[in-house]
Amino acid sequence: MRSPRHAVAIARPQREISPEVILGDDVVRRIESSCPGDTFMPPVSVGNPATVIARWVSEAESTGEKDPYLGKRQHPRFTWNVVVLIRVRTGALAGKVIRARARNVSLGGMGVQVRSQLEAETLVDVSIEGRPHSVCARVVHCTKAMTGNLLGVNFQPGQ
Q1: Whole-structure pTM value
Q2: Residue 66 belongs to domain with CATH number
Q3: Segment 62-105, tens digit of pLDDT
Q4: Rounded to an integer, what distance in angstroms lies between the CA atom of residue 95 and that of residue 109?
Q5: Is residue 16 one of the residues assigned to a domain?
Q6: HSE toward the beta carbon, residue 127, CA cutoff 13 A
Q7: Which member of 20, 33, 42, 130 has the greatest number of CB atoms within 10 A?
Q8: Number of C-alpha atoms within 13 angstroms, CB side, residue 31?
Q9: Binning pLDDT at 50, 70 and 90, where does residue 48 land?
Q10: What is the tally of structural domains in the chain?
Q11: Residue partners of 143: CB distance under 8 A and separation at least 6
Q12: Any domain includes 6
């Protein structure tokens, strides 16, 4: 027979705690700085970057939802929840590799959720974690949000 305390523990709904609640920004920064160089960032795509971008959009189209503002955009966006790596090429954080999460992707660019604050016009290389290609992009905006920063990048396949 189980004790009454054990029965209460079983009956109590389990609450999932997000990592942001457990780790503050200062702790995350210390952890990230203590393991430099452990993230592989592939070189900028050799060959046709437009093919890599089209592959990303095709994957997002098959797994995500289409943007409801289709008529207002040059390229349709699709939700895409993947881990991305961003290598900063210019600006104050040049050389740093940032691990982030993609929110959406289109043939023109990508929406990304990041912890770091990047300035508009900063050049970056974007890669999907675990994939062999990266594509050059330009930061269009970096907007503060409750969960970090929302970064909008415009693909620059010619650079």
Answers
A1: 0.68
A2: 2.40.10.220
A3: 887 877 666 677 888 899 999 999 999 999 999 999 999 999 99
A4: 21
A5: no
A6: 22
A7: 42
A8: 7
A9: confident
A10: 1
A11: 149, 150, 151, 152
A12: no
